[in-house]
Amino acid sequence: MPLDIDSITAESIPHNCLVRLQSVYDSLKNAEKKAADLLLKQPDFISHATITEAAQRAGCSEATLVRLSKKLGYAGYPELKAHLLQTESSDPVHLYENIEVNDDDSTIVSKVFQSSIQALTDTLNVLDKKQYGLAVEALCNAQKIMLCGTGDAAAVAQSGYQKFYRAGLNVHVSADPDVQLIAASQLARGDVFIAISHSGRTKTVVDAAKYAKISQATIICITNYPISPLAKNADIVLQTAAFAEYVKGEVMSKRLAELCVLESLYVNILLRQSDKLGYNLDKANLAVEINKL
Question: Which residues are in the SIS domain (predicted)?
């Protein structure tokens, strides 16, 4: 659930820090939420307070502040303070604008586009480059690739499947939970299982990931929440950052971020294996020409 962040808070906390905080907040323990709430309400105090002073005001331990700092991507509390003190002009303030029932047509289309642009920008900024590199290596060396998602995440998985299959890779996808479990159980060491879940809490996807792990496949998850059940069962976590909410709670911007992550992985594979995959791709492109007028 996206946090309710006002403009004053957004101006006082670096945008990347806010993005990370939104991605982990729901998974924080009670004491950690006390520390996070203090950060949200009194960022100026945190930026100048010692860890002892901050812990006393938040009503938590100093160790809790260290844990929160690390979950936000910092080495520790001093690094969090230092980032809060920075006033980088290159770190612009952006708030996700939720669509309201009384918004007019032009406002709605503007908000839809802006939320997608923001999600892609934030995803690029929070994406762990080391984890991403591991994902590329695993996919380049994979004997078999399986993509898994349900609901509209299944459409993302299907899109990835069509790209990988067109290049001649050994790839499987299914939106059926039973087939997902069966396929995951038939994976082996060296295979790659790509799980896609915005929340990281989709039970069927998490269950399939657990079976793939038992099969000793490498688990790559694409999720908005890096401390989710899915992420905890993954070897490699590729985090997206889409936090806008519309009237009904479903947004396409989260899927666009996932699609871009998959697309970039696909392009990396093509470039690294251009000699082999280029030939396959040329044959596939020639074959589908028959369906064009």
Answer: 135-275
For residue 225, with 0-12 CB atoms within 10 Å meaning exposed, 13-18 middle and 19 or more buried, which class applies? buried
The predicted model scores a pTM of 0.81
Residue-wise pLDDT for 116-127, tens only, equals 888 899 999 999
Q: In the structure encoding, which two tokens stand for residue 46, read together?
A: 């945190």
* Full set of structural domains in the chain with CATH: 7-85 (1.10.10.10), 123-291 (3.40.50.10490)
Quote the tokens at residue 253. Answer: 């911007």
**The tokens of 32 are what?**
């950690």
The secondary structure of 246-264, three-state, reads: CCCCCCCHHHHHHHHHHHH
Give φ, ψ of 128 to 5 degrees. -75, 115
First-to-last C-alpha distance (Å) of the chain: 46
Residues 5, 273: Cα–Cα separation, whole Å: 45
Q: pLDDT digit string (tens) for 126-161?
A: 999 999 999 999 999 999 999 999 999 999 999 999
How far is 146 from 166, CA to CA, in rounded Å? Answer: 15
Q: Whole-angstrom Cα distance, residue 21 to residue 40?
A: 9
Residue for token pair 């993005």: 19
Q: Helix crossing, 253-272 with 153-166: angle to 10°?
A: 20
Tokens, residue 95: 């708030």
